[in-house]
Fold this protein.
Amino acid sequence: MQLSLQGKTYVIMGVANKRSIAWGIARALHAAGARLIFTYAGERFENEVKKLVATLEDDTALVLPCDVTKDEEIEACFAQIKEQVGVIHGLAHCIAFANKEHLEGEYMNVDREGFLLAHNISAYSLTAVAKAAKELMTEGGSIVTLTYLGGERVVQNYNVMGVAKASLEASVKYLANDLGKYGIRVNAISAGPIRTLSAKGVGDFNSILKEIEERAPLRRTTTQEEVGDTALFLFSDLSRGVTGEIIHVDSGYHILA
Ligand code: NDP
Ligand code: N5H
């Protein structure tokens, strides 16, 4: 069984710049011969995504707006994909957001609005886009989202995002159960800390990375390429028996006490 994705089409949601985990996934799928479609939220990142797409060998990829807080934008985005491409075979959901002030100090200081915002963008959005994507996955498919250890355990400062990731991980399982009968698999990759735009401004990110280099079984931090290659596996037929799973790509850090 080969890891070629020739003739297959995948939607990549959440490229902000070249450091984005979504871009690591895009590069892995592109190298395997897949056709890609990109979505972005804010206009501020439209040009960045288009610039990155231009660096690909096949630079004809569709680039569409899709702010996941807006039902009408999700609807319009997938309607356009249906019209221009027809069938898709997978979707990478690489989207999360919480207010910066809720990513430090005590978890319980989050207010209702901040709680709902984090859950809306980081958890509910997977269900919303899975439902839209299902209509285009008429040949079966694979949906992959990204989570972090802070959804399973208390990790300092992750706070409301940890609670949202717990919801996201439960959503993976319920969606896997709903969509399995259509030949659609749903899985998450729990990535170790990677320096991206989202991670910017996180106080002490250096010491988080240092602890991983010192203590993780593989004694090194996680790279975008490592996450990209596991996503490639999850999008390929090699993983055809895997659904509802959370795969840790974190140098083994999650097994430590
Ligand atoms: P990036 O900052 O590169 O990506 C975050 C993305 O979220 C951006 O592309 C942003 O889109 C998108 N986003 C935010 N709000 C919305 C919205 N309303 N609608 C659509 N998209 C939105 O960071 P990462 O690559 O690190 O993050 C990708 C995923 O990986 C997240 O789910 C994150 O929690 C997860 N993760 C990250 C880890 C890390 O250490 N970096 C570790 C484990 C998991 P736009 O730029 O267009 O606003
Ligand atoms: C334990 C940690 C460190 C503390 C928590 C970090 C949480 C990060 C996740 C969210 C997604 C970051 C976030 O929402 C940042 C925004 O408030 C501000 N940034 C932005 O608006 C930028 C411009 C845009 C592009 O960002 C987004 N998201 O839209 C966790 C770390 C060790 C690991 C980590 C960084 C995990 C993760 O989930 O990303």
Notes: Helices lie at 21-31, 46-53, 71-84, 112-134, 159-179, 205-215, 224-235.
